[in-house]
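cron nightly-structures :: item 1 of 1
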Amino acid sequence: MARRTHSGPEDCNCLAVRQAARHITQFYDQFLAPSGLRTTQFSILAKLRRLGPMTINALAAEMVMDRTTLGRNILPLERDGLIAVEQGSRDRRSKELRVTEAGEARFRAGTKGWVQAQRQFEKAFGAKRTTDMRAILHAVTAIELGTQAASAEK
């Protein structure tokens, strides 16, 4: 069988991943709703809890988000007192984010829904496929894809 060298727009990797991400995000948001958190907010709190206080730039890199998108996502967390923005411990000119006691409590409240979502997703998608999917997606975020279109043509 001949192998296609160029796929068409219907085979767009980016679109497939974005559609899957939106689908899964909507699913998790339903489970997190009782805690008052959205999936991205829960993930931000989880990163800060695990890694400790960090700058917006460092958190954006960890989250694989651009700084402005992260900024929009941390505003409601700061407004609700779930994170604090403080002067940097290493560089007084920088700002560091940290989880507050209220943020810890909200995160714990959200964890119950998150666990339910994880279990239900795994039940629907299959335990092995879920584990494999996470491994593949972690591998995708770890590779250097390059930014120049010309490099793709070499």
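cron nightly-structures :: done
Residues 101-125 form the longest helix (25 residues).
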